[in-house]
Amino acid sequence: QPDRPDAAVVLGDARAIGHLLVHATHECVGERARAEVVAREAGAALECLDGADVAIVDPPRKGLDAPLAAALAAAPPARVVYVSCDLASFRRDAALLLGGGRLRLALLEAWAMFPNTEHVETLARFDRA
């Protein structure tokens, strides 16, 4: 589809949107895939999943918006990459994503990015079953 961007970036945080636009403008113009920035909560931008091969999600500590989790579980893309900063919300969301049997957990890694703290970042890859 020639008029469809190569990627859609859905952000609900105004600071993150501003940061992305500044860096995309200065560093990536003409050098990277075309991306559409969607300034909405992810749960309100589900049309961005239509036809996607991969969904990369990096939700806040509360985890995925319920509509997004339900949409990913019901009709998942070939791959979902999930970055989490909260183990409790990740466990809840992973159970939702795996519960329908349409996704399988293919990779799970924990990263101690803040040494000498209890904080762990989690990276998970779910593949369509």
Number of helices: 3
Low-confidence stretches: none
Average residue-wise pLDDT: 81
State which percent range the strand residues make up.
25-35%
| Widest β-sheet, arrangement of strands | 3-4-6-5
Succession of helices and strands = EHEEHEHEE
Number of strands: 6
Shape: globular
**Helix-strand makeup class:** alpha/beta
Alpha-carbon Rg, integer: 15 Å
Question: What do you see in this structure?
Answer:
The chain is of the alpha/beta class and 129 residues long. The protein contains three helices and six strands. A four-stranded mixed sheet has the order 3-4-6-5, with helices on one face. A two-stranded parallel sheet has the order 1-2.
What is the fold's blueprint, element by element?
Blueprint: E1 7-10, H1 14-28, E2 35-38, E3 54-57, H2 66-74, E4 79-84, H3 87-99, E5 103-111, E6 121-128
Parallel strand pairs: 1-2, 3-4
Antiparallel strand pairs: 4-6, 5-6
Q: Which keywords apply here?
A:
globular; 3 helices; alpha/beta
Short description:
With 129 residues, the chain is of the alpha/beta class. Helices cover 29% and strands 27% of the residues. A four-stranded mixed beta sheet has the order 3-4-6-5, with helices on one face. Strands 1-2 form a two-stranded parallel sheet.
